[in-house]
Specification:
Layout: H1 2-40, H2 46-79, H3 85-96, H4 102-124
């Protein structure tokens, strides 16, 4: 079971890092493309971009803080055998179920590792 915990921890570290990288690339792309769109927009609708761009950036930062950073922290904690790490990764795995197809696979694997670990710990008592 320890090998599965290690694999799960590495998967979460990689997926959290890739989420952060993806958000940074998306943010850079939006920052580059928005000025070109603003130049083509009519002057009376340019005020919308003043509101939309900060909202998009805030949304990206919230996603990173809610999902990506806890994934990395949980993965590192699971590698260090912290008792709370598997529970954190189970919760994050439930959210990952909605991210088809890779997130779904990681979520199912998280649930399986948690249930097998829970089954083993309850039979040893």
């Amino acid at each position: 079971m320890e090998i599965h915990k290690r694999i799960l921890a590495i998967l979460y570290i990689i997926s959290g890092s890739l989420q952060i990288l993806g958000m940074l690339i998306a943010s850079a792309f939006i920052s580059i493309i928005i000025p070109f769109i603003m130049d083509e927009a009519a002057p009376e609708v340019q005020w919308i971009f003043v509101w939309i761009v900060p909202f998009i950036r805030l949304f990206a930062v919230m996603i990173i803080f809610i999902f990506s950073i806890p994934s990395i922290i949980g993965g590192i904690a699971l590698l260090n055998n912290k008792p709370w790490a598997l529970t954190l990764l189970l919760v994050l795995g439930c959210f990952k179920l909605f991210s088809f197809p890779i997130g779904t696979a990681i979520g199912i694997y998280s649930i399986w590792v948690y249930s097998e670990n829970h089954k083993l710990s309850s039979t040893s008592n």
